[in-house]
UniProtKB/TrEMBL annotation:
PROSITE patterns found in the cross-reference section: CDP_ALCOHOL_P_TRANSF, ZF_RING_2
Region named Disordered: 504-597
Organism: Lyophyllum shimeji
Cell location: Endoplasmic reticulum membrane; Nucleus
Keyword terms, alphabetized: DNA damage, DNA recombination, DNA repair, Endoplasmic reticulum, Lipid biosynthesis, Lipid metabolism, Membrane, Metal-binding, Nucleus, Phospholipid biosynthesis, Phospholipid metabolism, Transferase, Transmembrane, Transmembrane helix, Ubl conjugation pathway, Zinc, Zinc-finger
Name of the protein in its database record: CDP-diacylglycerol--serine O-phosphatidyltransferase
Pathway: Phospholipid metabolism; phosphatidylethanolamine biosynthesis; phosphatidylethanolamine from CDP-diacylglycerol: step 1/2; Lipid metabolism
Catalytically driven reaction(s): a CDP-1,2-diacyl-sn-glycerol + L-serine = a 1,2-diacyl-sn-glycero-3-phospho-L-serine + CMP + H(+); S-ubiquitinyl-[E2 ubiquitin-conjugating enzyme]-L-cysteine + [acceptor protein]-L-lysine = [E2 ubiquitin-conjugating enzyme]-L-cysteine + N(6)-ubiquitinyl-[acceptor protein]-L-lysine
Positions with biased composition (Polar residues): 588-597
Annotated RING-type domain residues: 454-495
Gene: CHO1
Similarity-based family: Belongs to the CDP-alcohol phosphatidyltransferase class-I family.
Gene Ontology annotations for the cellular component aspect, listed alphabetically: endoplasmic reticulum membrane; nucleus; Smc5-Smc6 complex
Principal subcellular localization: endoplasmic reticulum
Amino acid sequence: MSQRKSSTRPNVTQLTMSQQKADALHQYQDTDGHFSLVRNFRLADLVTIMNGVCGSFSIFSSARYLITNDIDYLWSALAFPLAGLMFDFLDGKVARWRRSSSMLGQELDSLADLISFGVAPSLLAFVVGLRTYLDTVVLTGFMCCGLARLARFNATVALVPKDEAGKAKYFEGLPIPSSLGLVSIMAYWAKNGWIEGKEGIPWGTVTLWGKEGGRGELHVFSFVIGFWAAAMDMLLAAMDIYCRVPYPSSKTRRGTKMVSTDDVQRLFLQAIFSRGILSGKLAQTLWAKCVAAVQAADPDLAIPYSNSKDAWDAFVTRVNRSLDSLDLEFRHLHDENTGKEMYALVNRKGDEIAQMATEYTPAEIAYFKAIIELIMLAPRESFSVSSTAALREVSAIRPKTNMSKTQAEVVLGSFVAKGWLVKSKQGRYSLSTRSLLELLPYLKSTYPDEIVECTICMEILTRGIACHTNNCKTRMHYHCFTTFRRRHNACPSCRTEWPAKHSETPLIPVGEGAARPGDEAKRRARSEDSDADEEDYAEEDEPRKSQQRTQRSQRPKTGKTAQRESMNVDDDADDDFEYDPVKKEKASQPTRRSTRK
């Protein structure tokens, strides 16, 4: 039983981030030839590098201005950061257009921003006149604060609250591109000639200590730059004062949080994991919700969706293709009572039930296997077991356990509550749709001779009807019979005329309706995989003495003795049933075997 426990489930955010980082590291391993680093670059990464190129040109232009005093170099140094902002905006657009993202792009974005919006503006401030000792200290602090700001963003971007579109609702601190505000102020000064020299910079200087012109001199504008640096580095945030500025970040979309069409399947599977089994209608509704959520995160993303059966089948095929390497399958089965299409995520391997369980103890799993055996080996294809027989089975669990009948009753209630078993109003247990879906490989591998399939839909059948003609193998679900009977009035195999309703005679019920009171007197014949299989006892025709019969009833029957005695009980019960074809049908059924070790 594949039971998933939420208490042991790892944090989804941590799991996603760890997996993405592992994939990113594996991607850049140089194991596939030369130039692997260059070949791993995406078009958006090249656009990001152009941002860094613009910042570098601004730095060199500032240096040339210091050497030549040519004002054209100063204007070039002021213009290149603005060009870098354009490339910083375009890289996110290109990433969404190409539908590609990488952790490399996120790191490149931060490094390029540091050059264009951290180092370049600081050097510009130096060349226009902020050249005192304390000015250089402030400008150095400005660059370091920008560096810390970008490092914090990369570390916490996954934890920042997002809006419906997947963008960060706020940033703690000013984004580093806001330094272009300082650049625009310096451009205005350059236009008016308010640069260079102690008196050229507006607001002048102040002397904090020592004599005028010494190390204690500082331009007033440096206080503005220092405050800007503090806002970026979140020194205000350290005092619980957050600067939350709405800012559509391309890094959030380009980094690990960028959405793609594959996110539809990821969201859909997460919803399936949390539900276990669900109807086809609900599954299609979840699909539509997942498409809408991903579409809201990126309106430019083209996601194929259509409210049609062909589109749904194509989506299920894509989901199963992604699960193929895990030997999992998103499989459907019709509910045997209502005919509704049900879906569940199942393990395609025929693993033992104990290997699939995560919540029940080994004793409880062994008990569940014993209940399944009783259900699958039930006589006359009744595929059910009474509560009395189910509780009595505790003593037959191998290996022996100390589970009491009171505990077994609680465990049975748990099986019903978890959806593994169904309990009818008559108190009989049968397999649920969830069990038939998730345990189908186990049932087919363990009970291949007992599996009954519907003649119409070819799905496993534990509730329905059987043709009353002797040796006819036709079996149908109730809903399949109703659909078939609308157009045909005879059995598809033997052409015997059928009644209009499945509840009418002479149709033979399959499932709980086929059970008889005598079935619970003694257990169905079972063969044991031990030396007792070779013991052959004579069939008892007459009753024994009361004491011998009591002693024999307390001793487990083995080999052919148990088989013959059980068959006598079944025949006696059949004699009480007044419809003759049932007895003929019963006699033609093969003896069912046991898998009990």
